[in-house]
Automatic annotation (TrEMBL):
<feature type="region of interest" description="Disordered">
    <location>
        <begin position="346"/>
        <end position="365"/>
    </location>
</feature>
<dbReference type="GO" id="GO:0005524">
    <property type="term" value="F:ATP binding"/>
</dbReference>
<dbReference type="Pfam" id="PF00225">
    <property type="entry name" value="Kinesin"/>
</dbReference>
<keyword id="KW-0547">Nucleotide-binding</keyword>
<comment type="similarity">
    <text>Belongs to the TRAFAC class myosin-kinesin ATPase superfamily. Kinesin family.</text>
</comment>
<dbReference type="InterPro" id="IPR036961">
    <property type="entry name" value="Kinesin_motor_dom_sf"/>
</dbReference>
<dbReference type="GO" id="GO:0007018">
    <property type="term" value="P:microtubule-based movement"/>
</dbReference>
<dbReference type="GO" id="GO:0016887">
    <property type="term" value="F:ATP hydrolysis activity"/>
</dbReference>
<dbReference type="GO" id="GO:0005871">
    <property type="term" value="C:kinesin complex"/>
</dbReference>
<dbReference type="InterPro" id="IPR027640">
    <property type="entry name" value="Kinesin-like_fam"/>
</dbReference>
<feature type="coiled-coil region">
    <location>
        <begin position="291"/>
        <end position="318"/>
    </location>
</feature>
<feature type="compositionally biased region" description="Polar residues">
    <location>
        <begin position="350"/>
        <end position="365"/>
    </location>
</feature>
<feature type="domain" description="Kinesin motor">
    <location>
        <begin position="9"/>
        <end position="441"/>
    </location>
</feature>
<keyword id="KW-0175">Coiled coil</keyword>
<dbReference type="InterPro" id="IPR001752">
    <property type="entry name" value="Kinesin_motor_dom"/>
</dbReference>
<protein>
    <recommendedName>
        <fullName>Kinesin-like protein</fullName>
    </recommendedName>
</protein>
<dbReference type="InterPro" id="IPR019821">
    <property type="entry name" value="Kinesin_motor_CS"/>
</dbReference>
Length: 443
C-alpha cells in the first residue's frame, strides 16, 4: 500500500437497528464472515426472498443491542488524536428512511452516553481534550467552531442562521463557496454572508446550540416515518481559538471593502471604452476622433483595486499563519447525516414509501438519489487513490470537496444503517449493495 493510499483510508461499517413495535413481519436472517481479508462479507436471507451475499467490504458490523457508545468507541474514538493534530475526519450515515441514520449521527438524547449521537459524543471528548490543552496554558484558549447546515436540492440552508437559504457555487479559484444573502453596508461595502460558525467554549454551550438549531430541521410529510428527513445535514466541529475567528472575520471585512472598489474600476473602464469608441455604419467599432481614452483614470482605478485585492490576500495569509501557530487549530470532525435513500422494489415497482409522495417530494427524491450516487463515485475515486475526483457531479459532493481534500492525514468512514425487518428487505438489500460498492473500493 503506498503512502498516499494509506492517507486515504475509508472504512464502511454496517449497523442493524432494533425492530420497531410496528415491524411484526419477522427478522431478516443475517450473517457476517471474515474471509481471507480483514473485511467482512455480509449475507441476508428471508422466506420468499432471494438470498444475497456481499463481497468482503465491511470493516465491522453492529447488532441491534450495540448502542451508540459502542459505535463511538469502535469507529470514532481513535480519530481524536488525529483531529487534535489538525486533521479532518469525516463520517457519513447512509440508509433508507427510518433505518437509524439520525439516531446514529445526532441522536435523540444528548445527555446519556449510550444514546447520544456520534457528533455529540465527539464534541464531548473534544472539549475534554481541549480543556487539558487549555490548562497547559496558551495565549488563546482553544474551543470548537460549530456549523450545521442542510443541503436540499441545489441549495444549502444554514440552521445557525434561521435556515437562511445559501447558494452553492464553484468560484474562479476552483473552490466551492456557500454564500447567503448579500448585505449592503456603509460606504457601498457589500457583505455576502458565509455559512455561520458558532464559537463554543464549553460543551454545555455547544449542546445548547445543537438543540436550538436542530429544532429547525426540515422534515417530509409522507415517507416511512413521521420525522423523515429529506435533506443531508452536515455538522462540522472545528478546533478554533479567538485569533483564528478574528483572522477569518478580517478576511470577510477586507472582501466587503474590495467590492465597491472593484465595482468602481469596472465602471471607469466601461465609461472610458464607451466614450472612446463609436459605431461605424457597417456595425463595427472605431476609435472616437473626438475623445481620447483617459488611460490614467483607468490605471488609477485598477491600481486602487489591486491595493484592496492585496489587503484580502494579506488577510488570507494571516489566517494561514494563525492556523500554523498551534498543531490542533483547523482540526475537524465532520458528520454527515445523509437524506434517506429512495429505492424501487425488485421488479421496478415504486416502494411503499414512494407511493404516497407529492410531485415535489418525488422530484426531491430524484435529486437525493443523484446526490447519493455522486457521493458513492467520489468516495470510490477518493479511496482508490485517483487524482481526478468528480466533486462537481452534485451540490452535495461540491460541498464535501474541502472535507475530502482536507482529510489527508485523517480517517473517514461510512455507517450503513439498516432495518432487520423482513418488510424492509428490498430497502436493506439496496443499502447493503451501496455499502459494499463503497467498501470494496476502499480495500
Ligand atoms: N440503533 C438504534 N437503537 C434504538 N433505536 C433506534 C436505533 N436506530 C434507530 N432507532 C429509532 O428508530 C427511529 C428511526 O430512526 P432515525 O430517525 O434515526 O431514522 P433515519 O434513518 O434518520 O430516518 P430519516 O432518513 O427518515 O430521517 C427513531 O425513533 C430512532 O430512535
Amino acid at each position: 500500500m503506498t503512502q498516499d493510499k494509506l492517507a486515504r483510508q475509508f472504512s464502511v461499517f454496517l449497523r442493524w437497528r432494533p425492530l420497531t413495535n410496528d415491524e411484526v413481519a419477522g427478522e431478516i436472517t443475517r450473517g457476517s464472515q471474515n474471509q481471507d481479508t480483514s473485511l467482512r462479507a455480509v449475507s441476508i436471507s428471508a422466506p420468499a426472498k432471494r438470498p444475497w451475499t456481499s463481497p468482503p467490504a465491511f470493516k465491522g458490523s453492529f447488532e441491534p443491542a450495540d448502542d451508540n457508545q459502542v459505535l463511538f468507541d469502535t469507529i470514532v474514538a481513535s480519530a481524536l488524536p488525529k483531529v487534535l493534530n489538525g486533521a479532518s475526519c469525516n463520517y457519513f450515515a447512509y440508509g433508507h428512511s427510518g433505518s437509524g441514520k439520525t439516531h446514529t449521527m445526532i441522536g435523540y438524547d444528548y445527555d446519556s452516553a449510550d444514546r447520544m449521537g456520534l457528533c455529540v459524543a465527539a464534541a464531548r471528548k473534544l472539549f475534554e481534550s481541549l480543556s487539558i490543552l487549555n490548562q497547559e496554558g496558551s495565549e488563546h484558549q482553544l474551543g470548537v467552531g460549530f456549523s450545521l447546515f442542510e443541503v436540499r436540492q441545489k441549495s444549502a440552508f444554514d440552521l445557525l442562521n434561521r435556515r437562511t437559504q445559501c447558494h452553492i457555487r464553484e468560484g474562479p479559484d476552483g473552490k466551492t463557496h456557500i454564500r447567503g444573502p448579500t448585505e449592503m453596508l456603509e460606504g457601498g461595502k457589500v457583505r455576502v454572508q458565509p455559512i455561520a460558525q458558532r464559537s463554543c467554549w464549553t460543551y454545555d454551550s455547544f449542546k445548547e446550540e445543537m438543540r436550538t438549531s436542530l429544532g429547525l430541521r426540515a422534515v417530509g410529510s409522507s415517507s416511512v416515518h413521521d420525522q423523515s428527513s429529506r435533506t443531508h445535514a452536515i455538522i462540522t466541529l472545528e478546533i478554533i481559538n479567538t485569533a483564528l475567528a478574528e483572522a477569518r472575520q478580517a478576511v470577510a471585512d477586507r472582501q466587503s471593502e474590495l467590492v465597491p472598489v472593484g465595482a468602481h474600476a469596472t465602471t471607469v473602464n466601461i465609461e472610458e471604452q464607451t466614450k472612446g469608441y463609436i459605431q461605424t455604419p457597417d456595425g463595427g467599432y472605431a476609435l472616437n476622433p473626438d475623445y481620447q481614452i483617459n488611460q490614467e483614470r483607468i490605471d488609477a482605478a485598477e491600481a486602487e483595486k489591486a491595493k484592496f485585492e492585496a489587503r484580502v490576500s494579506a488577510a488570507e495569509e494571516h489566517v494561514a499563519e494563525v492556523l500554523g501557530s498551534h498543531r490542533s487549530l483547523g482540526g475537524k470532525f465532520v458528520f454527515v447525516d445523509l437524506a434517506g435513500a429512495e429505492y424501487q422494489e425488485e421488479k421496478g415497482a415504486p416502494s411503499q414509501s414512494l407511493r404516497g409522495q407529492t410531485p415535489q417530494e418525488r422530484q426531491e427524491g430524484r435529486q437525493i438519489n443523484t446526490d447519493l450516487l455522486a457521493l458513492k463515485e467520489v468516495i470510490r475515486a477518493y479511496a482508490s487513490g485517483q487524482t481526478r475526483i468528480p466533486f462537481r457531479s452534485s451540490p452535495l459532493t461540491m460541498v464535501l470537496r474541502e472535507h475530502f481534500l482536507g482529510s489527508r492525514n485523517g480517517s473517514s468512514a461510512m455507517i450503513v444503517t439498516v432495518s432487520p425487518s423482513v418488510d424492509q428487505y428490498a430497502a436493506t438489500l439496496n443499502s447493503l449493495k451501496f455499502g459494499s460498492l463503497v467498501g470494496v473500493a476502499s480495500v
